[in-house]
């Protein structure tokens, strides 16, 4: 072939994709206002206005649906749109008289408008059974069931502050789940199975070195070099599986979901912080994971009812204290709530400031 | 039992009910014209029945000359689901800030209709466009069409991952530097590092325009570049009054929630003790018309965030308390190179830079990358009195030192 193979060109330059109102007012925005759920206006120093309509998406989308978004962008936005870091679609308009028609078209397509301001935004999530080898649960299915249940908080029901939910289907945590108001996390609970012929697919020293608790030891079985696992020291992190496919972790009887709360990434008021364990284990119960849906709703409602203005989940819990969080939510406190990995002691209560 | 998936998809059908848009509907839309998506639907139904996934570890597949950008994926039931025996993912580097024209989107869709399952993620966790599922044979042709249309692959494996940025100055009045320009520049400068894994493990950049950190950089990026300012918050007193009149309880919901209690409101005038302001954004978030970040803007650079694998999760910590972020970003890039050099030399296999920093200690790490320690880097000085002093005097040393002066 005559043409040279193109490589290392990087993505197309974003500047070519910006609507003209953005090009003109780039870096010169003055303020914004939320006009109604899912709709905001940014006003530039020049007086120009940019209207944004935000709609939820399932993240997993067919090209046919994306083409429909492209059609809507042509119809209402001179062919411009963007996506957000939480898998929402944003339509960018200069003419606010078109907003109602756009929202109607989005509804017709099945995409609710919302997720701006003190609202639940879309759930950041991962691949699950759709496409990942590591998954301890499905991602899209739980997200769909939870968002069906909470969608009114996306489309405008008043809330004290922002609420960010994320889901990862294993401890690899693709997605910022470890710093979310509510994190749904797939977990394995059975030590890896050791497949025959391990030494043919994996380097045994690498496998041994991969285990953070040194639970993996060399062994010989039927004359073949392999490994053995000290099951008492396994914390189901799947590091070994990441480096060696002959140590699968997935197990229908034992895999499930844990729920974590009170993390955030924004610096507003309190510093960014990790989520903490609320519920150690809930079963995988497809297709709609009712236990998970119920648990998330319960936590959202307790926060909704008791939090002060602008209080994120973690700020709310810090104010009332963890014992009261467990009491209000009715979640049973268990041994698993107590950390036992490195620096666990930092999470012990080291004062007598207690509410009795 | 009839094999799940062959007789319809009763379980997945349940997930087409309800108000939230359904991924099942999306797979079905694609399945109408595409046999891979059709097979995926059956396999997924089976996973829903069996409560377990059916994907194997990726093998090494990719496009010529690249080591990243393709995730190899194989079904563990290839005989039963031959159409998705290979189901590899391409990560396509998204346009910075996730801005698209309808034409660009259609181009991607057309390419993916010809070469893959017709299913995507808009977008993946790191920010790439995810083209979900194709065969090994289709990888090169897909890549050729993508590059012919000015798209390229993103990162995967032990390489620099696709940098991402918040919407920044394109639409946000709070952006303290040009997040899009920086992310794009880093992407273009480090194409080799993006496409050819040569690091101990992955390395992510995320550019957030202000401390609200809409791209979760402090939790997710090995290098988090978060916009901030170092002069006074701009106040429009008229708009403060207007915010109060519109129903905001300024004392309760702004002043009392300021983490350093540095704002006062007497009903007429809002005063901020800017020396004590920690740039948390709360007051600005609550009164966007009345308050704006200062004019002397730049960013704080933090290092080391990661998810739990291998040694536990970390948040990024401060490396450079304040710096101007202006093209061509030489100072920043030089520092990045020094970090990468040290990490490449001393990092263990699969050790993220944050873990290395913990292992060798921040003090030693700073020395190695030639950055002066400052108190801003710590929540507080050490509590532990076991200090590794590196030198001590021996009898007679003092005279020698005097001589040297
Ligand atoms: S979180 Fe785990 S299972 Fe889910 S997509 Fe990421 S690596 Fe795969
Ligand atoms: S899952 Fe983690 S703790 Fe268990 S054996 Fe594997 S590496 Fe070790
Ligand atoms: S991080 Fe700050 S500047 Fe960037 S979009 Fe969010 S609020 Fe705006
Ligand atoms: S930005 Fe935060 S710390 Fe600074 S004055 Fe406003 S509320 Fe207080």
Observed structural traits:
heterodimer; A: 356 residues; alpha+beta; five-stranded antiparallel beta sheet; four-stranded mixed beta sheet; 26% helix; B: 405 residues; Alpha-Beta Plaits; Sulfite Reductase Hemoprotein, domain 1; 4 domains; five-stranded mixed beta sheet; four-stranded antiparallel beta sheet; 16 strands; 33% helix; globular; binds iron/sulfur cluster
Q: Brief overview, please?
A:
With 356 residues, chain A is α+β, with helices and mostly antiparallel strands.
Distance between the termini of chain A: 79 Å
Helix vs. strand class of chain A:
alpha+beta
What percentage of the residues of chain A does DSSP assign to strands (E)? 15-25%
Number of continuous helical runs of chain B: 15
Find the structural class of chain B using helix and strand composition. alpha+beta
The number of distinct structural domains of chain B comes to 4
Report the major sheet of chain B: 5 strands, mixed
| Uncertain stretches of chain B | none
Please report the number of helical segments of chain A.
10
* Widest beta sheet: strand line-up of chain A: 1-2-3-6-5
Quaternary status: heterodimer
Unreliable segments of 5+ consecutive residues of chain A: none
**Silhouette of chain A:** globular
Distance between the ends of chain B? 90 Å
State the helical fraction of chain B: 25-40%
- The count of DSSP E runs of length 2 or more, i.e. the number of strands of chain A, is 12
Ions, cofactors and other bound molecules:
iron/sulfur cluster
Mean pLDDT across residues of chain B:
95
**Greatest interface and its participating residue counts:** A-B, 113 and 130 residues
Kindly state the percentage of residues in helix of chain A: 25-40%
Explained architecture:
- The complex is a heterodimer of chains A (356) and B (405).
- Chain A is α+β, with helices and mostly antiparallel strands and 356 residues long.
- Chain A has helices spanning 20-25, 63-76, 99-109, 140-154, 198-201, 204-209, 239-243, 290-306, 313-320, 322-329, and strands at 29-36, 39-44, 49-56, 60-62, 80-83, 88-93, 165-168, 182-187, 216-221, 224-229, 256-261, 276-283.
- Chain A is built from ten helices and twelve strands.
- A five-stranded antiparallel beta sheet of chain A has the order 1-2-3-6-5. Chain A has a four-stranded mixed beta sheet with strand order 7-8-11-12, covered by helices on one side.
- The mean pLDDT of chain A is 95.
- Chain B has a five-stranded mixed beta sheet with strand order 8-9-10-15-16. Chain B has a four-stranded antiparallel beta sheet with strand order 2-4-7-6. In chain B, strands 1-3 form a two-stranded antiparallel sheet.
- Chain B is α+β, with helices and mostly antiparallel strands and 405 residues long.
- Chain B is globular.
- In chain B, a hairpin with a 4-residue loop joins strand 12 and strand 13 (270-272).
- Chain B contains 15 helices and 16 strands.
- The model of chain B has no long low-confidence stretch (mean pLDDT 95).
- The interface between A and B is large, with 113 and 130 residues.
- Strand 5 (80-83) of chain A pairs antiparallel with strand 5 of chain B, so a sheet runs across the interface.
- The structure holds iron/sulfur cluster (4 copies).
- Residues 258-260, 262-263, 272, 277-284 of chain B line the site of one iron/sulfur cluster.
């Amino acid at each position: 072939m005559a043409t040279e193979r193109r490589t290392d060109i990087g993505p197309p330059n974003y500047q070519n994709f910006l609507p003209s109102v953005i090009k003109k007012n780039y870096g010169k925005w003055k303020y914004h206002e939320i006009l109604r759920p899912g709709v905001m206006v940014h006003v530039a120093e020049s007086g120009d206005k940019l209207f944004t309509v935000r709609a939820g998406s399932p993240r997993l989308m067919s090209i046919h649906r994306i083409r429909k978004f492209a059609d809507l962008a042509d119809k209402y936005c001179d062919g411009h749109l963007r996506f957000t870091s939480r898998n929402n679609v944003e339509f960018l308009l200069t003419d606010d008289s078109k907003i109602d028609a756009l929202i109607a078209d989005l509804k017709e397509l099945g995409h609710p408008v919302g997720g701006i301001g003190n609202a639940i935004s879309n759930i950041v999530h991962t691949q699950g059974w759709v496409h990942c080898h590591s998954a301890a649960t499905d991602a899209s299915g739980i997200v769909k069931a939870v968002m069906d249940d909470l969608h009114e908080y996306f489309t405008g029901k008043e809330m004290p502050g922002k609420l960010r939910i994320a889901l990862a289907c294993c401890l690899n945590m693709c997605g910022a789940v470890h710093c979310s108001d509510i994190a749904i996390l797939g977990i394995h609970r059975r030590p890896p199975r050791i497949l025959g012929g391990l030494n043919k697919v994996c380097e045994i020293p690498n496998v041994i070195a991969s285990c953070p608790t040194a639970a993996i030891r060399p062994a010989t079985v039927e004359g073949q070099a392999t490994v053995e696992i000290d099951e008492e020291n396994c914390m189901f992190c799947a590091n070994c599986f990441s480096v060696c496919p002959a140590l699968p972790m997935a197990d229908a009887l034992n895999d499930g979901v844990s729920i974590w709360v009170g993390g955030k990434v924004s610096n507003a008021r309190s510093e960014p912080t990790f989520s903490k364990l609320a519920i150690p284990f809930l079963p995988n119960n497809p297709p709609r994971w009712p236990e998970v849906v119920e648990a998330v709703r319960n936590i959202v409602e307790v926060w909704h009812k008791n939090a002060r203005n602008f209080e994120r989940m973690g700020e709310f819990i810090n104010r009332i204290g963890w014992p009261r969080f467990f009491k209000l939510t009715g979640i049973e406190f268990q041994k698993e709530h107590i950390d036992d990995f490195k620096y666990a002691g930092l999470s012990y209560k080291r004062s007598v400031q207690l509410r009795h | 039992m009839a094999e799940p998936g062959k007789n319809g998809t009763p379980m997945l059908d349940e997930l087409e009910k309800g108000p939230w848009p359904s991924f099942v509907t999306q797979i079905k839309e694609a399945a109408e014209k595409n046999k891979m998506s059709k097979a995926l639907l059956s396999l997924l139904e089976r996973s829903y029945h069996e409560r377990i996934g059916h994907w194997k570890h990726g093998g090494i597949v990719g496009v010529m000359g690249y080591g990243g950008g393709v995730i190899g994926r194989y079904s563990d039931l290839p005989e039963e689901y031959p159409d998705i025996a290979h189901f590899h993912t391409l990560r396509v580097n998204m346009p910075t800030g996730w801005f698209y024209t309808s034409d660009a989107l259609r181009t991607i869709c057309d390419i993916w209709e010809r070469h893959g399952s017709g299913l995507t993620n808009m977008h993946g966790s790191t920010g790439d466009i995810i083209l979900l599922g194709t065969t090994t044979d289709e990888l090169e042709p897909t890549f050729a069409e993508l590059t012919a249309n000015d798209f390229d692959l993103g990162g995967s494996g032990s390489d620099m991952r696709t940098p991402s940025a918040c919407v920044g100055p394109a639409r946000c009045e709070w952006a303290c530097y040009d997040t899009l320009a920086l992310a794009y520049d880093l992407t273009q400068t480090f194409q080799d590092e993006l496409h050819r894994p040569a690091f101990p493990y992955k390395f992510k950049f995320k550019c957030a325009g202000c401390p609200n950190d809409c791209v979760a950089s402090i939790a997710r990026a090995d290098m988090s570049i978060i916009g901030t300012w170092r002069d006074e918050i701009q106040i429009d007193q008229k708009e403060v009054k207007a915010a109060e009149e519109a129903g905001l309880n300024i004392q309760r919901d702004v002043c009392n929630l300021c983490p350093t209690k540095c704002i006062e409101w007497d009903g007429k005038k809002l005063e901020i003790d800017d020396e004590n302001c920690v740039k948390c954004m709360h007051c600005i978030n609550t009164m966007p018309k009345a308050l704006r970040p200062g004019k002397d803007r730049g960013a704080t650079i933090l290092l080391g965030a990661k998810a739990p694998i291998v040694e536990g999760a970390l948040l990024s910590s401060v490396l450079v308390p304040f710096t101007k972020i202006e093209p061509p970003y030489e100072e920043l890039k030089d520092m990045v190179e020094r970090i990468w050099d040290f990490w490449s030399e001393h990092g263990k296999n699969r050790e993220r830079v944050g873990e290395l920093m913990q292992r060798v200690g921040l003090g030693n790490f700073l020395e190695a990358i030639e950055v002066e320690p400052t108190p801003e880097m710590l929540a507080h000085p050490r509590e532990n009195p076991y200090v590794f002093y590196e030198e001590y005097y021996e009898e007679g040393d003092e005279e020698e030192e005097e001589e040297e002066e």
